[in-house]
Design brief:
By secondary structure, the protein is of the alpha/beta class. The protein starts with a strand and ends in a 19-residue tail after the last helix. The protein is globular, with a radius of gyration of 19 Å. 47% of the residues lie in helices and 14% in strands. It binds acetoacetyl-coenzyme A (CAA) and NADPH dihydro-nicotinamide-adenine-dinucleotide phosphate (NDP). The site of acetoacetyl-coenzyme A has 18 residues, from helix 2, helix 7 and helix 9. One of its GO terms (biological process) is butyrate metabolic process.
């Protein structure tokens, strides 16, 4: 099966980046979001990202135009019927994702592969709500999608070798390096990364050091490109909290308990860059 048309669902920071790299690799992209404003913001974000590449001389203006021409904003989910592959990038909630996958299973043609960009949720459980569990797979891009080379590919219990092969080849076509991992909470990336971020939040919560000092230690001492609190704001504090809750619930070990300060910020609507405020304050959410 040749994958020609991809629907990306959720036009947030991940979905807009996935739409951009998919269109840049020559695929036709249908971009859908539940909210029209989020869809417009997603298109604005990826247009800005492509514009930056043009300014830096890394992309010709005509290429930018043709990439944008391959991305069709879709107000209706029904257009998933045109897709060979759906990549879901909505909020990190099992309830929202399973509701969506049930609908997609009804709407999509029999050959269509359903992939999820989930950061931590079990692929097997998402697949189980569909009648096509052999065609459901995790395709976990990293943020910012146009820059980061990794795609974690996660097989559910029933994912077929054929579907795995298609997704691995597609990740390579998008210029990414696929790495296969098994279906456990947080996979590899967030099993390792998120407890580090959570522990950094605890050091602020317990008064070990100020947020700037924590970030400086990790940047200058460990050569991390961003400090853990800066990175948490970049990922989104709501997403970080969801991931910690999934690690805590799924692995049942108290070492994964989310820091109360993280919960407090999320409850206050301080979600990081996307809302203009998290551990730090930002001018623009784009
Ligand atoms: C939560 C999960 O489930 C999994 C995850 O994704 S965890 C998060 C993983 N990501 C990280 O850890 C990111 C860590 N941070 C970094 O690597 C870097 O800080 C960064 C790449 C984001 C920015 O790098 P920088 O050197 O500070 O900035 P800058 O020089 O402006 O940008 C470097 C390149 O990235 C691009 N870039 C930066 N931010 C971007 C964005 N949001 N979207 C698209 N491109 C972006 C720039 O255009 C630039 O591209 P070129 O090299 O082609 O010119
Ligand atoms: N942030 C990160 O660094 C990474 C995140 N991920 C994963 O990617 C997914 C998306 O994360 P991210 O892009 O950061 O989140 P965002 O909050 O930036 O974007 C999510 C988007 O999905 C929309 N949405 C919510 N529910 C639905 C629905 N039922 N149908 C269609 N659209 C919907 C939201 O609309 P609205 O805002 O209007 O509610 C929003 O525009 C999550 O599963 C996350 O765990 C994976 C790798 C890295």
């Amino acid at each position: 099966m040749a994958i020609q048309t991809v629907m990306v669902i959720g036009a947030g920071q991940m979905g807009s980046g996935i739409a951009q790299v998919a269109a840049a690799s020559g695929l036709n992209v249908l971009l859908h979001d539940i909210a029209e404003a989020s869809l417009h913001q997603g298109i604005a974000r990826l247009t800005k990202s492509l514009g930056r590449s043009v300014e830096k001389g890394k992309l010709a203006e005509e290429e930018k135009t043709s990439i944008l021409g391959r991305i069709l904003p879709c107000a209706h989910l029904d257009q998933a019927a045109q897709a060979d592959l759906v990549i879901e990038a909505i909020i990190e909630s099992m309830e929202h994702k399973t509701t969506l996958f049930k609908r997609l299973d009804d709407l999509c043609r029999p050959h269509t592969i359903l992939a999820t960009n989930t950061s931590s949720l079990p692929i097997t459980e998402i697949a189980a709500v569909t009648g096509r569990s052999s065609q459901v797979i995790g395709m976990h891009f990293m943020n910012p999608v146009p820059v980061m080379p990794l795609v974690e590919i996660i097989r559910g219990l029933e994912t077929s070798d054929e579907v795995f092969g298609h997704i691995r080849d597609l990740a390579e076509r998008m210029g990414k390096t696929p790495v296969e991992v098994n279906d456990f909470p947080g996979f590899v990336s967030n099993r390792v990364l998120m407890p580090m971020i959570n522990e950094a939040i605890y050091t602020v919560y317990e008064g070990v050091a100020a947020r700037e000092a924590v970030d400086k230690v990790m940047k200058l001492g460990m050569n991390h490109p961003m400090g853990p609190l800066e990175l948490a704001d970049f990922i989104g504090l709501d997403t970080c909290l969801s991931i910690m809750e999934i690690l805590h619930g799924g692995l049942g070990d108290s070492k994964y308990r989310p820091c109360p300060l993280l919960r407090k910020y999320v409850k206050a609507g301080r979600l990081g860059r996307k809302t203009g405020r998290g551990f730090y304050t930002y001018d623009s959410s784009l």
